[in-house]
Amino acid sequence: MSVVAAETAEVVLSSGWFLENAFIIPIIPAVAFALIIFFGKRMPMKGSEFGIASMVGALVMSVGAGYQWIQRVNGAPEEAYIEPIIRTWTWWQNGGIPLGIGQHIDGLSIVILIVVAFISTLVQIYSTEYLHGDRRYTHFFASLTLFSAGMLNMVVAENMIQLILGWELMGLCSFMLIGHWWEDGANSRAALKAFFTTRTGDIGLLVGTSVLYFAANDWTQKTLGVSGFSIRGLSAWALSGEPSSTAITVGAVALFIAAIGKSGQFPLHTWLPDAMAGPTPVSSLLHSSTMVVAGVFLVARIFPVFYEGMNIYGSNVNFIIVIGAITIVIAAALAFVQTDIKKVLAYSTVSQLGYMMMGLGAGAWLPAVFHIFTHAFFKACLFLAAGSISHSASHHSFDMKKDMGGLRKFMPITFGTWIVSTLALAGVFPFSGFFSKDEIIDNVGYAGYTIFMWVGLLGAFMTAAYMTRATYLTFFGAPRGAAAGEHHDEHDAHGHDAHDDHDAHATHDAHAAHDAHGHDAHASHGPRESGPLITIPLIILATLAMGSGLLNAVPFGSEWENFKKWIEPRGQVVSVTGIDHSAGSHGESRVIQPEARVTAGYESDCGKKTPTDGVCYAPQLKHAKFKWSKAALSLAIVAAGIIISWFVSVQLYTRRNKVLVGLTQRNKLLGAGYAFLVNKYYLDVLYEKIIVRSIAYPISRGAYWINQNILDGIVNGAGTGSKTIAGWVYRNIDQRVVDGAVNKSGDAAQGAGSIVRPVQSGKVNQYGALLFGAAAIGALVLVIINT
Amino acid sequence: MFVNQFLMLAAILFCIGVYGVIVRKNAVLVLMSIELILNSVNINLIAFSLRNGSADGHTFALYVIAVAAAEVGVGLAMVLLMYRNRRSVGLDELSGMKG
Amino acid sequence: MEVLSDNNWVLTVGTFLPLVGVLIMLFIPKADEALAKAVAIITAAATLAVGIFTLVKFDYDKADQMQFVAEAEWISVIKSSYFIGLDGISLPLYFLSMVITLLVMIYSWNHVPSPGNAKAFFALMLILQTGMAGTFIARDLVLFFVFFELVLLPMYFMIGVWGGENRQYASLKFFLYTMFGSALMLVAFLALFFQTGAESFSIPYLIEEGINIPKNTQIWIFAGMFIGFAVKVPMFPFHTWLPDAHTQAPTQGSVILAAILLKLGTYGFVRIAIPILPEAAKEWAPWIGLLAVIGIIYGALGCLAQTDMKRLIAFSSVAHMGYVMLGISTLTEFGMNAAMFGMVAHGLITGMLFFIAGSVKERYHTLEIKRLSGLLVQVPKLGWILGFSAMASLGLPGLAGFWGEFPAILSAYQPAEGLPVGVFRTYMVIAAIGTVFAAAYLLWLYQRTAFGEPTAEFSSGHGHDHGHGHGDDDAHSDIHDVNKFEWIAWTPLLIAIVVFGVYPQLMFKVLDPAVGVTLKAFGG
Amino acid sequence: MIASDVLVAQNVGFAIIAALMIFGALRVVTTNNVVHAALWLVVVLAGAAAQYILLAAEFVAVTQVMVYIGAVMVLFLFGTMLTRARIGAEKDLNNKNWYIGLPVAGLLLVTILIALKDGFGDEKMPADADLFTVAQVSDLIFGPYLLPFWALSFLLLAAVIGAIVLARRD
């Protein structure tokens, strides 16, 4: 193989305008945001045109970049490491060290860029119809566009600080979008909760970034001429064998906590379902396909840090994989007891994110990223379908049991897209989900994490089951409630599902949405298919949900593994001669080698032993050999899930089977389990009722009390202290309260003993006399002793 | 000059002050007597600092003067308050601390 | 240190021009308020013009050196001279003070708090301006002290005369508290003077000499300065004057107090205490850090307990200055830069928040969070600006607040050598947790005041299908959205918040070299 | 010889001043007129200042004059004015415990005198003692005695605040 190295040593990687200027992509929507804010209201389409235009622009540029990246990869030799395109400008400085902002474009960022831009475009188009006539239509598009700017910026980020910038911007936008209908307290509370929870996770982000910076900075400055924030620097440093295991482990764990918060992993997953209080397009974009994968993206982005920090491959269990596995199961379990269709999808999102995390934890980097890719399409599609249902069929209710059922007749397109995406989510061959999820499970097993492979299979079973239940409740059986055309007003919406107030919120905000819509037409006629602005995005997404899996169809042989070829960073040692060390030049652009040469031998395997002649940017990853036997197993499990769930649903919801109906009421154990699930394992109780309450009320009150009474007391003591003494004297002089004073000083006197009591004449002079008399006697004694 | 002449002068002043503190009823006068005591102490300090040939005594004499000033200030303020409250500065009406 | 003293008249003019304005105002009849205001604002504008000229003439490649240096005999008896100069650390604050004063005055055009008397009010603000600007350019301890105290009186009157119900108490507390601080500070200065051979009060000289002071004496002197400055900052536990002063002060007072006055303390640390007494600074740093993080958490908790919007903002200042002090206490360039940036950012953001609080008060005649609701419905622009400022205040990246907060936390991971690393790393984690609290109280405030529907008592006459409480529309007639004076006064602040947030290098480029010089003693 | 003259002069001066002081002090504690008492106190304080000069402590003497006779006495007079309607003699300035006061004071005096007698006997002051300069004093204040100095400034501050708060009418 080293022969290959020799002859490829002179290969120059191709580049192109789109790759060189990918940093513009986030700037487009940022500008659009400003335009919407300032001129949006005056535009004919109330500012949405800016948003859509910017998204299209971003999409075009991303695709262009993607094309050129593929050229770049194809131009390179088989195993060669593909130099990412990195540009930095001085953003701020410290101690003379310039710290940059710029772009770091490689396969990963390209994929996410395209996904984000693409789905944002569709969702914005969809929203023009869905939020038509909304009171804050313009603000909605402003936030949506700003969100895209944040996400894209995070994706192209060259260093951690820039990444944090995008990360927090997304948090802000999700706050504004979840609370879009803030007239209703429930929505604004949900928004607060979402922002607050992710912010809690961000502690990890801040701490982890700091730790890694100080641990890595010297090495990166010396070796690569970049700061300890730079992603490239961190990756190389992590694999260089430099880092002390504690530093990198602490850093990795801290960063992963941030990922937990953002990606709704256990135990910080509780905010995501509540986030469904936002308008459906928001749920579809932010809380299923893009923003929530930010955590996963973070892990994938600086994977080497986690690879070393968590000792992936090296041990048969680690933090990431455990969290991922737990999340898969608990979230899937929760999805069974939801009556709100959006909440089912929310929990399924959480569970799928668990898959991605588990994959990354097991070193299955590629399948995880691929799952981000496919999941984005089918999950967005599912949410938009749910939105379409509530928009046109169920009168802005999301309650499957109350307001849906039998809708497949009324809305065939929505139904079809829903089914396709459901199958994809369940991982049925040949839909996209199969190729990504099954790969994850397969690789997890292959990497030696057998238990977790079984957890994954269990998750697949549950996924299939709860999606079947949701499908049945929504599209089959007899129409109920609004689906049957009847208009229930706000009050019984409040009444229903007393045990789970979040459903109440969901229905409630549906009404807020309805107020916002202004036109009350839905009340009159029954369900119907939605308009083209809604269905066309659905169809597009469904198509991708079906087909996108073929990009990396492992079962069909290696020539189908384009995704792997284009995206996966190759764990090769790269000689650092290519990189110019003219760092620190203020201001002007600093291009680090768009055309790095590929040198060094291929046989040295990054991540296993430390590189000698050069640096590694990525560990060499294992890839499972695909076997139909294993696939068959998982497919069988999925099929079982679907069939069983279908049977149960029919019995439970249509036939009203005596055995099943009310089982949870009859059977103590099941009842308890049901309550446990309905209350989300009581985590919310812990967070809101116990932790937040205690801080918000007793603790802060206590601190404030200390402030007012102790600190302030000491301060005022200087002035009012003497005042009180005087007041005390005054009170005692005052004849009217003399008794009380007598008692008071009486207590003091009793302390001294009732013998001395008569001495307490209260006359200052006598006290003086006593004092000096005692002194005199004491002095006399001393004199006598000494003489 | 003897050391004692100063010390004894101080002692005499001190005792006169003590007497004043005990027998005087008017609060202002009591304060004055206290001033006498403080001054006698100062004289001692200065005398000793001359005897020992170090300036420490001076320092502390200065400190004592400052403290005395503060004490008079607060003392008179309290007397004022007391007078305001009950039109008299007689200390022996202040029998509130009676046990 | 080499000093550049070309066009050295700039600073003197920039500092004392407001006093000239005051002189002119003395001859304006009290009745003619408009004229008085006009004169005052023109003076402030002229001052700002001088400031801009300074900004232009400033040699940014030599930001680490003192520029526009002027030195003249002053009080030769005590070897104190009129010695002024400007370097990268002073420049932003010096300029900020001018901007804030002008904006506050513009805002005051139609917001003169009761009991009126615009002439005196504006005159006081001009005097304040001189004091603030002077403090930032003084290079001589006595001069510094004079300016430092000059700030005190106008603020005392501002609170005591134009303040709220409880103004007597608040102003007296503010005054005595700060006096007490500066008394110790003065003693410390004198001690420093004598310890360095009673040669000179000039700061550069003292920086040269200070290192030779025996360590124990240094520690005591530092203690004196520490209390003097800490009261001004204010650091826990010397902060209790702040909420009262802020709550009682008129809007303009609060803004100036938050934007500039609090910075005098931190500036004192950076400019005087730490470079002159490095040894003592090292000894004290862990304790300063401790108080800083206590302040962060404690201020946040204080905020959560508030029911009054303005008081909440006041407490948030305690928390934010905690970050600044944490940065300073690390004695590293990272920390100092963060602290300096944080000062300016806090000045802009909290100033903005106080403006908003003032306008809300003016419209609703209350700041009770309970009674305020649905600002976004009744005064949408004001509501969004409040949201923006809250976001900036909780340190959202892309806005100015972040650059004071994050690097400060970052720097605590690796303090200057000689400081206990473990301790500071603990501080770092606590400070990071503080950011969550910041988010909590600010967003909670925002959710309670801006979101939802207006409360019944204010919603009447606004067409919302809610219980028309006691429909006295005259009480609500003044609930209007942002007016033009407010726009003029606020826009620069808002723009600055965004600009510094998006491109912090603007300021770091100026600060960084100067900070490096300040920390020479620590091998920074 | 001259030295001895000086010494003599000193001793004479001391005797006269001491006598004045003692007499003044006695009047302070016995007079029936508060204002007179204050004025007698002035005599004593001035005497003390004189004694300081004899004891080679100009600075303290000056301070004594300034602080006491300048400030404290004024305070006293003000106190007198403010607390008493009319100036002039009056009866009930003393209470009835002279029978306690005299013995206590006497006992104390005797004891101290005895102690001093066999404490110092007829030890003499160093005749050629040179004056203490202000510089020496200030060195001490800002050197070893810095801490008490601060404590003192705290005390003064507290006194100021206290006085304000007490005397304010509210």
Brief characterization of the structure:
The complex is a heterotetramer of chains A (787), B (99), C (524) and D (170). Chain B is an all-alpha fold. Chain B is built from 3 helices and no strands.
Q: Classify the helix fraction of chain B into a percent range.
A: over 70%
> Got a strand count of chain C?
2
Number of helices of chain C: 22
Most strands sheet of chain B: none
The percentage of residues in β strands of chain C lies in under 5%
Q: Point out poorly predicted stretches of chain B.
A: none
Based on CA atoms alone, the radius of gyration of chain B comes out at 17 Å
Describe the protein:
- By secondary structure, chain A is mainly alpha-helical.
- Chain A contains 31 helices and five strands.
- In chain A, the strands form two sheets. Chain A has a three-stranded antiparallel β-sheet.
- In chain A, a hairpin with a 2-residue loop joins strand 1 and strand 2.
- In chain A, helix 3 runs antiparallel to helix 4, helix 8 crosses helix 9 and helix 12 packs parallel to helix 16.
- Chain B is mainly α and about 100 residues long.
- Chain B has a single domain, classed as Helix Hairpins (Orthogonal Bundle), CATH 1.10.287.3510.
- Chain C has 22 helices and two strands.
- Chain C has a two-stranded antiparallel sheet.
- In chain C, a hairpin with a 4-residue loop joins strand 1 and strand 2.
- Chain B: It is found in: Membrane.
- Chain B: One of its GO terms (molecular function) is oxidoreductase activity, acting on NAD(P)H.
- Chain B: Pfam families: Oxidored_q2.
- Chain B: InterPro entries: NADH_UbQ_OxRdtase_chain4L/K, NUOK/Mnh_C1-like.
Q: Main traits of this protein?
A:
heterotetramer; A: 787 residues; mainly alpha; three-stranded antiparallel sheet; two-stranded antiparallel ribbon; 5 strands; globular; disordered N terminus; B: 99 residues; Helix Hairpins; elongated; transmembrane helix (chain D); Nuo/plastoQ_OxRdtase_6_NuoJ (chain D); NADH_UbQ/plastoQ_OxRdtase_su6 (chain D); membrane (chain D); transmembrane (chain D)
Blueprint (SSEs and pairs):
The complex is a heterotetramer of chains A (787), B (99), C (524) and D (170).
Chain A: H1 2-8, H2 17-20, H3 24-39, H4 48-75, E1 85-94, E2 97-105, H5 107-130, H6 137-156, H7 160-178, H8 185-223, H9 231-239, H10 245-262, H11 271-274, H12 280-289, H13 293-301, H14 303-309, H15 319-335, H16 341-361, H17 365-392, H18 400-403, H19 412-426, H20 432-446, H21 450-475, H22 490-495, H23 501-517, H24 532-547, H25 562-567, E3 573-574, E4 590-592, E5 615-616, H26 628-654, H27 663-666, H28 668-678, H29 683-733, H30 738-752, H31 764-786
Antiparallel strand pairs in A: 1-2, 1-4, 3-5
Chain B: H1 3-23, H2 27-52, H3 56-86
Chain D: H1 2-30, H2 34-54, H3 58-83, H4 98-120, H5 134-142, H6 146-167
